[in-house]
Amino acid sequence: MEENNKMDISRRGFLKTAALAGAAMAMPSGLGKVFASEAKQTETSDVDTDAAHIKGHRVLGTGKAAFEVSALGFGVMGMTYNRSQHPDKKECIRLLHEAVDRGVTLFDTAIIYGPLTNENLAGEALSEFKGRINVTTKFGHEVIDGKGTGRQDSRPATIRRYCEESLRRLRLESLPMFYQHRADPNTPAEEVAATIADLIKEGKV
């Protein structure tokens, strides 16, 4: 009986928090902060934090390229790119750390998110967890001087440059997964695959 009551409270808390968070996104900034504040209070008082721990796992890739990650991954994109209002950096880092504490071991970002700023955030927040988690990123969109052009660019030289830049921003020696975000109609898929294969041989992916 006690366990059922606990589950009911957790469910009510989750639904209330979700509703308040949705309302906050739709409100002007002042009212949004009020709703967000109430949602935060609800989170600490009603939600069973143990229920949010990620326990399942899955395997990505095959053979020597296979690696195990949590059943639920964390998409970093919305923290700095699209998705309405963005939390400040300190809050983003706190949330990413909490996700690790709750068992998330897969985090995904991309060069175009920001552009570039999302990878910087992921690198700053998650570099201390090397060996415990995997941070994946994507190439394919053309970015010049920190701005997306709306075009695709997966030429071999560009892929190599993007790989080196992503490694620096993410503070990694090797990318667990580096995959094509959008196909480049001007670059054959065989050239893209061959370039990634070379990066794998070099230990950069």
Describe the structure.
With 205 residues, the protein is of the alpha/beta class. It folds into two domains: 52 residues; 148 residues, NADP-dependent oxidoreductase domain (TIM Barrel), CATH 3.20.20.100. The protein has six helices and eight strands; from the N terminus they run ααβββαβαβββαβα. The strands form three sheets. A four-stranded parallel beta sheet has the order 3-4-5-8. Strand 1 and strand 2 form a beta hairpin. Helix 3 packs across helix 4. The chain starts with a helix and ends with a helix. The N terminus is likely disordered.
Shape: globular
Rg, Cα atoms, Å: 20 Å
Distance between the termini: 51 Å
Placed side by side, the strands forming the largest sheet appear as: 3-4-5-8
Structural class: alpha/beta
Q: Determine the mean pLDDT.
A: 84
Unreliable runs, pLDDT <50, ≥5 residues?
A: 2-21, 23-39, 41-47
What's the CATH H-level homologous superfamily of the largest domain?
A: NADP-dependent oxidoreductase domain
Tell me the total number of β-strands: 8
Key words describing this protein structure:
alpha/beta; globular; 2 domains; 205 residues; 8 strands; TIM Barrel
Describe the structure in brief.
The protein has 205 residues and is of the alpha/beta class.
Describe the secondary-structure layout.
Blueprint: H1 2-26, H2 29-46, E1 57-60, E2 67-70, E3 74-75, H3 89-101, E4 106-108, H4 117-126, E5 134-139, E6 141-144, E7 147-152, H5 156-170, E8 178-180, H6 189-201
Parallel strand pairs: 3-4, 4-5, 5-8
Antiparallel strand pairs: 1-2, 6-7
Helix pairs in contact: 1-2, 3-4, 4-5
